[in-house]
Amino acid sequence: MSSSFEKHQKRRLISSYFSVVLSIALVLFLLGLLGLLILNAKKVSDHFKEQVVLTIYLKENAKDVEVKQLEKSLAMADYVKSTEYVSKEQAAEFMKAENGEDFMDFVGYNPLQNSIDVHLKADFVTSEHLDKISAEALNKNFVDEVTYDNDLVNLMNDNVRKISLWVLVISGIFTVIAVLLINSSIRLSVYSKRFTIKTMQMVGATKQFIRRPFVLKSVRLGIIGAIIALIGMGVVLFYLNKTFTELELLSNPILVGALFMFIFALGIVITWISTHFATQRFLNLKTDQLYY
Known about the structure:
Layout: H1 2-49, E1 53-58, H2 64-76, E2 80-86, H3 88-99, H4 104-107, E3 115-120, H5 127-138, E4 143-147, H6 150-191, H7 194-202, H8 207-243, H9 253-284
Antiparallel strand pairs: 1-3, 1-4, 2-3
Helix pairs in contact: 1-6, 1-8, 1-9, 6-9, 8-9
């Protein structure tokens, strides 16, 4: 009979430990993903900003030397990421591929212009910088027109500011929720041992002596949960880096490593503090209060 009871208690104990580890792992995993999002938010927004194209259309009488000199000066500029010369023949082929038919069959000639596509660095993708660059290009007598999607640029910059603000707010809220969830799991685990705690106290054990095994056990569970969370984060990060290679998510391994260390340390610190206060609470209760 006692053997059956001991097995039942052991199963309950293992189940309790498993639920604590699982809750810690899930919370830390989600917190880690949020951390990855924060670390790479600028990189993602920069990637989309750098897709904006400023197109410089050239006049028919533009000399090759002048065009190459302009392209070279743009390529060397601090605000330019890349440039590409697009001949009117290339532009016609692109339109033909896009529309599925050759518009020159109807027009009889190629009305398109030679152009230079300019991709700016993300920090310079603003209306002010684009207007300034456009004005400088238009000063060239062989430049006919400069175009870019001003509405898209303004919309993109507004959305980036809003998203950045909301990510910070959500991060703060989620961090508080994560701490509360892990704290609740630890407190429930300690609650199941409240009578053991009180019994040890009644036979003369000091509070520090009673707390120590509970804290050590919780810290071990926190380490296991953190390791599981880090493995999950590593798998997700590897998959995202392989899928979106242009974002270069692993370009700064020190920062990524610091995030992983932070998540690992957080698993230890939260479980240690939660267990300390949970055991302290039951140590301060009177015996008759343990039943409520």
